[in-house]
Known about the structure:
The protein is of the alpha+beta class. It folds into 2 domains: 4-124, MutM-like, N-terminal (N-terminal domain of MutM-like DNA repair proteins), CATH 3.20.190.10; 139-279, Orthogonal Bundle (Helicase, Ruva Protein, domain 3), CATH 1.10.8. The chain contains 7 helices and 11 strands. The protein has helices at 4-18, 38-45, 121-124, 139-146, 153-158, 168-177, 191-210; strands spanning 22-28, 52-56, 59-63, 67-72, 77-80, 92-97, 100-106, 112-117, 251-255, 258-262, 277-279. The strands form 3 sheets. It has a 4-stranded antiparallel sheet with strand order 1-6-7-5. Strands 2-3-4-8 form a 4-stranded antiparallel sheet, covered by helices on one side. A 3-stranded antiparallel sheet has the order 10-9-11. Helix 6 packs across helix 7 (191-210). It is globular and about 55 Å long. The two termini are 15 Å apart.
Amino acid sequence: MPELPEVETIRRRLAPLLVGRDVTGVTVYDETVSDQSVAELRRLTTGRRVEAIQRRGKYLALDLGDVWLVIHLRMTGQLLLSRPEGARLPRMSLAFAPPRDLFFYDTRRFGRVWAVRQARLPEFFAEMGVEPLSPEFTVAALRGLLAGRRQPLKAFLLDQRRIAGVGNIYADETLFRAHLHPLRAAGTVGARSAQHLHDALVETLTLGIANAGTSVDTFVDPEGASGSFQEMLNVYQRTGQPCRVCGTPIERIVVSGRSTHFCPRCQPPRHVASRARRSSRPATSARSTVGGLRRR
């Protein structure tokens, strides 16, 4: 699933190419791509100029002035500047002037698109947490979010209502860097460990962006290029392989329904919140080493 670094990579690739262009057409091939009708999407977007391309958590948004076209790629969504040879029809495409096209492909069809009036953006994003790369994400802010939480740290990091943009890959890698067990109860994290967690999350996300994202499955940038952060992964999808730090085999468990990878030596099980199902089976991978606007 594209997480914050992947969506930020897409934003940075598209901004120089689309900002300043006018939307001249919207073609929808799969009407499930939006809860809004094709006519409404066209009415709200066609003829407007792309003022900027923004990101909020895992959401990408084309700022069209008083309307934002918001896109969530979910699990397999891709935004491509050209149609791959032999590929099926995209779910949706956008045309711009001067001439340029943007195609939304999505094999599993979970991604969604919304045209949102700017005045309603606070409502649309109301349930989203702090941006982890923003000045607001301080150690003190993180400690406030952790306070009293009984949920495991892995589940806490995945909760978009607390911190926006973190998914399975970067949660596992962050907890490894912070030397924290994924089952540790969030509320037991003290001042020193909170500092480590904060620094590890910022470092992991920053490295992900610097390496153009993680391409362990379907992620590619708008020109079809893969990221390279998968070459730096310490634990994610490395079940049974030796830890890069201590040599202990990486273990895999399931936390809150999500495959979770960790080093049992570098991330000792202190203050664990609950039991989890263990597995020695590696996770599968293609390449291993609002009003009326429902965000489904």
